[in-house]
Amino acid sequence: MSNPITSIKLVLLGEAAVGKSSIVLRFVSNDFSENKEPTIGAAFLTQRVNINDHTVKFEIWDTAGQERFASLAPMYYRNAQAALVVYDVTKPQSFIKARHWVKELHEQASKNIIIALVGNKIDILEDNENERKVAREEAEKLAEEEGLLFFETSAKTGTNISEVFLGIGEKIPLKGLEDEHNNNGLNVTEDQRINLANTANASENASACSC
Amino acid sequence: MGVRSTSQEMSRETQERRAHSSSSSTSLVTSLMKSWRISSSTTSSSGSSSKKKFTQSHSGNPTTTGTYSDTHSHDQNPLRHSNELGMYSLSRSSSSDGNFDAMSKQQNSTNRSLSSSNNTYSPLRYNSPSTNQIDSPRASLMRQKHNKHSHHNQLYYQHNNSSAISESSAHKKSSDKYFEDLDEDWSAVIDNYNMPIPMLTNGGNGKSVSGYGNNGDSRNNLSRTSTASSMATSLTSNTLTQSQSLQYPQLPNLNTLDIPDTEKSQEEMENEREVQELNSIMQRITKFDNIIKNKHIINLQDLRQLSWNGIPKPNRPIVWKLLIGYLPANTRRQESLLKRKRQEYSEGLKHTFSDEHSRDIPTWHQIEIDIPRTNPHIPLYQFKSVHDSLQRILYLWAIRHPASGYVQGINDLVTPFFQTFLTEYLPPSRIDTVEFTDPDTYLTEEQKMDLEADTFWCLTKFLEQITDNYIHGQPGILKQVKNLSQLVKRIDLDLYKHFEKEHVEFIQFAFRWMNCLLMREFQMDTVIRMWDTYLAETSPETILSFASSNQVSNSSEGLMSPHTPLSRKPATFSTPNVDHVSPASSVGRSNLGANAANQAIASPVNVSSSDDSKRFSHTSLNEFHVFVCAAFLIKWSDVLCVMDFQGIITFLQNPPTKDWKETDIEMLLSEAYIWQSLYQDATSHWLK
Predict the structure, then answer these.
(1) Residue B608 falls within a domain, yes or no?
(2) Do B366 and A41 count as a contact with CB atoms less than 8 A apart?
(3) In this structure, are B310 and B352 located in the same domain?
(4) Whether the predicted pLDDT of B188 surpasses 80
(5) Are the beta carbons of B407 and A190 separated by less than 8 Å?
(6) Predicted confidence band at B262 (pLDDT cuts at 50, 70, 90)?
(7) Beta-carbon separation of A37 and B520 below 8 A
(8) DSSP letters spanning A50-112
(9) Burial of B210 (0-12, 13-18, 19+ CB in 10 A)
(10) The domain that contains B499 carries what CATH number?
(11) pLDDT at residue B540, as a whole number
């Protein structure tokens, strides 16, 4: 209890192959693999970091990017406290998609959600700045208009990855103090809505699950 | 011999049984389902405690010389009768566990008299309680499904029919008699089925029954004296279940453990084993050759039945093409059809990549970025030529199926076909190198186009079966996930409730299971083995419709013989030709009635179809897959039940299946089959 833990539910959104899974892999395992299998459905990972004597546990849902899976996304962002909207700085189409995600989050997600706009794959620009297809200014403008955090990252080299999460972690406790008192608050409310019979089952389960 | 080595023996025994059971007796499967689940989960969690494994399966399964006192007459409704037996066996084999409560409740009405004398280690569960269940047509039916050698089954069944079923009262009293009989029976098939002999021999010995479980040393002695020579040979029965051998982790272990007590040198044992393995592989290949070679009309019914238990590598490409309905059963038409389809493919490509056809850029791009990340751990999929082939196949499929289009996951599903068909062009000795060799080094351009065409058409046939999975909203997958949760709720209520308590939703882990047909959960070689069964499960009606579209369907020629073992209507997803097909199905059913009498013994599967065509009328590949997923999930039940949300999701995202062998997959499929058999009736109500 001396070191309170805040859980932050975070979701990653963005077009396919912009590097969502790679960002998470870098953040969670400090690892990178060139050809990661496309995420199907969503992947769940966690990572703890210390921010100002405070432990923050990120519970990360890394969603699939392909359009066909988009209908699953609300399930993951609906109760998220934070979202990374990721695009590929070399793919203008992915930035258009990012705009859509920001819009959808503002409309559908929780009002207090912290959104970070993340332009990934800046390592490609090191060799050739001409590869850049999404101007930094353009992204900054969007971030300002929509009240987003903004980072340009490289999951491959690790540039700015932890900064993204630290930036979110620093913002969350300030915004929602109550989260500190009730780590599981979000989980509980979320699932009670889904499952009203939950409490009855839970007690029964406690005795039954001695397997 | 210390406790430690005893427990090693025990775990060895467990492994051996696991390896064996998938290939022979389903009653063993039923009685082991629980204990295996425990053992695999224990292995996965700690990887060490074989002793614990033993204790758990020991205590978790109060074994009884269960005698089945229900009407044991061979009644008019063997299925119903046997269904009870099947249920009964399951609920009993886990009665103290609670995981099968729901099932037990359903089965409360089943009459049983349990004489709990044999509270012994599970090999004896196989011998004592389960063998009684073997008497049932149900068990026999299920065994048939898993048995490589139907004629052995036939013997077995006939035998049981006379000695066990009709003399049920005598049988009740004396399991010993049964074991003797069984022994004789097995000895008749000794060339193929050595594995059961040691156990059965021991089981037949009244003294050893108690000694087996209570005293590890005496058990070991017994098994040595009675089985020393057959131990090595018994290993080869493993290889019956797969085309390639020498992959069983327990093999070297067994040898070293047995050597001190046998007079054979290690070399001798090795040689003997190798010879036996080769023999059994050859036997199995011959069985397939007998069906598919030098025949005018290939009996797809037999082929499906045989393939369900695995296809030898040399036979696999052609058998897959037959099972999926790409190649016609009429062998005289195969060549012309292949020629036509291959030409169709290459013309399709030409048209698609010609100037008059505008490229669907988003689709092309999506496939392009997914192909390098398809099976990234297999060298084969890193070769440029393979990338190009897969790109063409997937793109052509996508633009020809606009309702679905390319969906991530389909890139996974294409690879088993591609890889399997590649082996056609490799000499038999090099089949195993397919994952490491650039196809460009051994394929001509023309061969490559043929390979692509075959892959394309088989992928097309396969995806036809599961179209709903990939259309907008993916209703097929959502339904399967829902069905899975409902199934788990009924099979393993504890697990279901634990998930509820931890707020785990099935879609969070099972979506991928459905979207990629568990391909992400297993290594490629096991996936391919799994597909032997899945392709054997593909619904004949769709194949029939495909056949008629190719003008090769002619009922007299019998592309699908009317009494196919898997004649089930694909009702859970939309098949346009259901109406068109159903008359044939009903004819098939009436035929079945007549055939059932004749074939009851030879082919218990047909017994089930005749009496229970409704039961099988709502299944499909998708549905069977749900049962496989259920079996897969429940396998980890014990570990999952002590995990929190994070643990559960993390575990299920990365299940410990890296070391799974084909035998593990076969066990899983067998379990799935049993669940399906048991829950088919129920599912018609709640699996909508």
Answers:
(1) no
(2) no
(3) no
(4) no
(5) no
(6) low
(7) yes
(8) EETTEEEEEEEEEE--SGGGGGGHHHHHTT-SEEEEEEETT-HHHHHHHHHHHHHHHHHS-TT
(9) middle
(10) 1.10.472.80
(11) 59
What residues of A are in contact with residue B409 (Cβ under 8 Å)? 38, 40
Of B407, B472, B649, Cβ closest to residue A44: B649
Question: Which residues in chain A are contacts of B408 at CB distance < 8 A?
Answer: 16, 38, 40, 64, 66, 68-69
For the four alpha carbons of A136, A139, A140 and A141, in that order, the dihedral sign comes to positive
Same domain, B513 and B659: yes
If asked whether residues B49 and B193 sit together in one domain, one would say yes
Asked which of B465, B492, B519 is the last residue of a domain, the reply is B465
- B7-20 in b/e form (b: 16+ CB < 10 A) is bbbbbbbbbbbbbb
Q: Each residue of A141-161: pLDDT tens digit?
A: 999 999 999 999 999 999 999
How far does B162 lie from chain A, in Å, by closest CA?
Answer: 41
How far is the CA of A171 from the CAs of A81, A166, B84, B384, in angstroms? 11, 9, 61, 46
Residues of B with CB under 8 A from a CB of A: 97-99, 366, 369-370, 372-376, 405, 407-409, 411, 470, 472-474, 493-494, 497-498, 500-501, 503, 505, 507-508, 511-512, 515-516, 520, 637-638, 641-642, 645-646, 649-650, 653
The alpha-helical segments, DSSP class H, found in B600-660 are 604-611, 621-635, 637-640, 645-653
Question: Which chain A residues have any C-beta within 8 angstroms of a chain B C-beta?
Answer: 16-17, 33, 35-38, 40-46, 59, 64, 66, 68-69, 71-72, 75, 187, 190-191, 194-195, 198, 201-202, 204-206, 208-211
For residue A122, which phi and psi values (nearest 5 degrees)? -70, -10
Whether residues B246 and B367 share a domain: the answer is: no
User: What's the domain range around B365?
Assistant: 331-465
Q: Which long-range contacts (CB under 8 A, 24 or more apart) does B642-646 make?
A: B642/A209, B643/B502, B644/B502, B645/A187, B645/B502, B645/B503, B645/B504, B646/A44, B646/A46, B646/A59
Per-residue pLDDT of A107-137, as tens digits, reads 999 999 999 999 999 999 998 999 999 999 9
- How far A187 CA lies from chain B's nearest CA (Å)? 8
Residue-wise pLDDT for B628-644, tens only, equals: 999 999 999 999 999 99
Instruction: Report, as an integer, the average pLDDT of B240-251.
Output: 43
Size of interface A-B (CB pairs under 8 A): 104
Which residues of chain B neighbour A201 with C-beta distances below 8 Å?
497, 500-501
Is residue B92 located within the same domain as residue B194? yes
CA distance A102 to chain B (A): 22
Among partner residues B369, B408, B505, which is closest to A40 by beta-carbon distance? B408
Q: How far is B491 from chain A (nearest CA, A)?
A: 14
3-state secondary structure of B56: helix
ipTM > 0.95 for the complex: no
Spell out which residues of chain A touch residue B474, defining contact as CB-CB under 8 Å. 68-69, 71
Q: What is the per-residue pLDDT for B114?
A: 36
- Specify the DSSP element, H or E, that contains B290: helix B266-292
Domain final position from B428, B447, B465: B465
Within a domain: B572:
no
CB half-sphere exposure, B458, CA atoms < 13 A: 28
Residue B562 within any structural domain of the chain: no
pLDDT at A6 over 80: yes
Q: For residue B2, what pLDDT is reported?
A: 40
Please report residues of B whose CB lies closer than 8 A to that of A69: 408, 474
Instruction: In whole angstroms, give the CA distance from residue B185 to residue B398.
Output: 54
Supply the mean pLDDT for chain B.
Answer: 67
Q: How far apart are CA B334 and CA B567, in angstroms?
A: 23
B558 within a domain of the structure (yes/no)? no
Q: Same domain, yes or no, for B387 and B416?
A: yes
Statement to judge: residues B281 and B239 lie in one domain: no
Which of chain A's residues have a Cβ under 8 Å away from the Cβ of B645? Answer: 187
- The residue written with tokens 């036997």 in the block is B283
